């Protein structure tokens, strides 16, 4: 009785009982791919919890000390307090190494979950109206988490992270006019400076996590709860219907299990698989570079872009413009993130499709979009592999120059080839689906006719199968403009280009 009275009192003053009642009954589709975003969400929870633990012991300063801790090989070595405190966490704080490795593995899984969730949304068309804003927030989250991962990776001030900071410094100073000022401000003087760790620490634990804590609930909760849940086509489903279980208890049980699975997986990986053993690298010394240095997987494509770019440079008004750094550092990620952010609006412009879409596409049903998506994956993948061209050359006994030129050709030809092959495969799969609907499903039963010929028995397609195989009818787009205005004057070029793109979209 007291509990119900308290609930009524809170509802009278705060409100929310109506929303809570509705939320408990909200239907969630059952397909397993809808839980890919949950992996990213719960990895972020692990990152936050372990990050709070690490802040109790990490000292974000580059003030030099002489190490006298428990790791004998580095005793007596001069190092920054940031590196010394990282060693202390690893060897002297109870559970410190486990938490450090959980933090690192959870970050990698967090980014992998974001990428998997993003690709699922792209290939199924989940970014279409009314979810364009949610898509843009997801792209922003991808960029912020990638940037924060780079900052966190650089905090221990070991030799490997210092090599990454050296590259970051080179990229910043290459920006014309303002680059040197930005580098001096961020690093606190000439490289390596004395403030870079403390400033990255502020960004890593305050600014970017604050933005994430604002955007993630907006992306995962507010907009998702406000909108109808997406789902794959089934018999009898419409844009305004959702087939699935309610949030309580069905979805709540699933998502709780995912939280436990993600946490357990991260803990297991941190226990069994060593990652970022900073004590083996030693403190950062600007004059020393470790061979075979590799960044975390999500930064590999930027490393590859830097390695593939020829040494192009020119001078304008007395200022050197190093294109060999600017193009990999700005154009390569710019193409990736700008393309992702603008794609929903480009597709809507081409197809003239402004209808609300809550039913998802199968990738084969939109060959052009699927081809473009695979081309983007090929672009990212080639750059990612090029980031390890030295290791490829060493382990496969190939000339380093040969691997560089192979990747230079692949970055141009690979996406084009991936697009065309993927599009042809999608067209072939669509043709097979049409044949299945027209002629029936192959049963694998072979019979011999009266004329001695053998044939396979086919059964008619059921209504449930047909609902999946036949795409839902899309609303008719606006009529194309006339070929002329009555005076034999052709339409503007912008209309002709758009009309041509629309006609060829699904062919």
Automatic annotation (TrEMBL):
It comes from the Bacteria. Residues 6-232 form the Cytochrome b/b6 N-terminal region profile domain. The chain crosses the membrane at residues 39-58, 105-123, 135-155, 167-189, 201-225, 258-280, 325-346, 366-385, 405-422. Residues 470-507 are annotated as: Disordered. The lineage of its organism: Bacteria, Bacillati, Actinomycetota, Actinomycetes, Streptosporangiales. Keywords: Membrane, Transmembrane, Transmembrane helix. It catalyses: a quinol + 2 Fe(III)-[cytochrome c](out) = a quinone + 2 Fe(II)-[cytochrome c](out) + 2 H(+)(out). This is Cytochrome bc1 complex cytochrome b subunit. Its EC number is 7.1.1.8. The keyword Ligase does not apply. Its cofactor is heme. It is an enzyme of class 7 (translocase).
